[in-house]
Design a protein that fits this description.
There is one protein chain. This protein has a 6-stranded mixed β-sheet, with helices on both faces. Strands 5-4-1-2-21 form a 5-stranded mixed β-sheet, covered by helices on one side. A 5-stranded antiparallel β-sheet has the order 12-11-13-19-20. The protein has 8 helices and 21 strands. The N and C termini lie close together (11 Å). The chain has 2 domains: 2-228, P-loop containing nucleotide triphosphate hydrolases (Rossmann fold, 3-Layer(aba) Sandwich), CATH 3.40.50; 229-341, OB fold (Dihydrolipoamide Acetyltransferase, E2P), CATH 2.40.50. By secondary structure, the chain is an alpha+beta fold. Helix 2 (92-102) packs parallel to helix 4 (136-148). The chain is elongated, with a radius of gyration of 24 Å. 22% of the residues lie in helices and 33% in strands. It has helices spanning 42-50, 92-102, 107-120, 136-148, 166-183, 194-200, 218-223, 228-233, and strands at 2-13, 16-27, 31-35, 57-62, 65-66, 77-80, 154-158, 186-191, 203-208, 211-216, 240-247, 250-253, 269-273, 279-280, 287-296, 300-307, 310-317, 327-331, 338-341, 347-348, 372-373. Bound molecules: adenosine-5'-triphosphate. Adenosine-5'-triphosphate (ATP) binds at residues 13, 16, 18, 36, 38-44, 192.
């Protein structure tokens, strides 16, 4: 049985579709990260599952129960928000147990759960403080405690770390992930931060314009993006997507006379190459580019190049020095290229890679997003 099952769920606002026929099955105990650019429908999806919004179409089931028509209080879900949403006039202990009091959980049981939760989250010394007397990280820990103290099996988190500084975010990422795994809960975690998504998700759901683009474990998402959108969205710098053109001399890189004789190369396709799969070579197969700039990043350097009218990036280990305008030849190994349909953006099966069920060259409306995650 799935912890969360969304079947063709849509939500419209006047003149706008926020989620458009979203289907997703999440196995119990999975940490799912919902990732996508601002406005793609991530929060709406969470609010639909929580019951704060009503779906215009589709069904939502939690642990096998159809909850589509149930109010939020009857859905047995814990929520953690970006804003923490703590009661300023209550101390930490009362903030944590407020929901239990509402549900008339007996005093002894409340005390037992409070002790357990505060120990788990390192809040023992802070129980008498009010939210204003806590740091951002401590407030977020209280918000987390409030979500789990009731024993909910599903927790929804909406950008819970975005108000914290970079260092604390990294620590809290690990803490949240470990907590979810220890408790065996199912988490749906919304973020627009790809590093957070790749680091935390057992599975990442990439959304774009209200629809699911791809559902996959982080490594598959990165190495085998299902679409040009995902390829561009994941990775820093993102995957290079090189346009091709047919000329009298054959298939060339658009805007250059450089022939491209690669398995998989065909008119109407985009050649995808991750920056770190490119390497400077003296001769042999590859592309002739012109260096625009080199950015030193410590462990490696990013070389920004021009390829005809197209910008491409290569990530090379360590320091790399080159002057703007210098010629450079970039090569890659046989399994580096990904191919995409230039018209639909969908990935095309590569001769060098195995395909997973959710990867196909079908247009989005035919792509199966209803992937079981276990
Ligand atoms: P962000 O990362 O910026 O929070 P998001 O991916 O969570 O974005 P949503 O908040 O789900 O996106 O919004 C999806 C779309 O629906 C957006 O275009 C937004 O403007 C619109 N929208 C959201 N809530 C409402 C509302 N109550 N009324 C009208 N439009 C809304």
């Amino acid at each position: 049985m799935f912890a969360i099952r969304l079947d063709n769920v849509s939500k419209r606002y006047p003149g706008h579709v926020a989620t458009d026929g979203v289907s997703l099955d999440v196995a119990a105990g999975t940490f799912v990260v919902v990732l996508g650019p601002s406005g793609c429908g991530k929060t709406t999806l969470l609010r639909l599952i929580a019951g704060f919004e009503r779906a215009d179409a589709g069904r939502i089931a939690l642990h096998g129960d159809d909850v589509t028509d149930r109010p939020p209080g009857a859905r047995e879900i814990g929520m953690v928000f970006q804003s923490y949403a703590l009661f300023p006039h209550l101390d930490v202990a009362d903030n944590l147990t407020f929901g239990l009091q509402l549900r008339r959980v007996p005093r002894v049981e409340r005390a037992r759960r409070l002790a357990q939760t505060s120990r788990l989250l390192g809040l023992d010394q802070l129980l008498a403080r009010r939210p204003a007397q806590l740091s951002g990280g401590q407030q977020q820990r209280v918000a987390l405690g409030r979500a789990i103290i009731g024993g909910r099996r599903i927790i929804l988190m909406d950008e819970p770390l975005s108000n914290l500084d970079a260092r604390l975010r990294q620590d809290m990422r690990r803490e949240i992930k470990a907590l979810a795994s220890d408790l065996g809960i199912t988490v749906l975690y919304v973020t627009h931060d790809q590093a957070e998504a790749l680091a935390m998700g057992d599975v990442v759901v990439v959304m774009h314009q209200g629809r699911i683009e791809q559902v996959a474990p982080p490594a598959m998402l990165y190495e085998q993006p299902a679409s040009a959108f995902v390829a561009r969205f994941i990775g820093t710098p993102p995957m290079n997507l090189i346009e091709l053109a047919t000329t009298a001399g054959g298939l060339c890189v658009a805007g250059t006379g450089q022939r491209l004789d690669l398995p998989g190369a065909a008119p109407g396709r985009l050649l995808g190459l991750r920056p770190e799969r490119l390497r400077p070579v003296d001769q042999g197969p590859g592309l002739q580019v012109e260096v625009e700039s080199v950015e030193y990043q410590g462990a490696d350097s990013v070389i920004a190049c021009r390829l005809g009218g197209q910008a491409i990036a290569a990530r090379v280990p360590g320091r790399w020095t080159a002057r703007a305008g210098e010629p450079l030849r970039l090569g890659w190994s046989d399994d580096a290229p990904c191919w995409f349909d230039a018209a639909t953006g969908r990935r095309i099966a590569s001769p060098h890679r195995s395909q997973s069920p959710e990867l196909s060259s079908q247009p989005p409306e035919e792509q199966p997003c209803n992937v079981a995650i276990s």
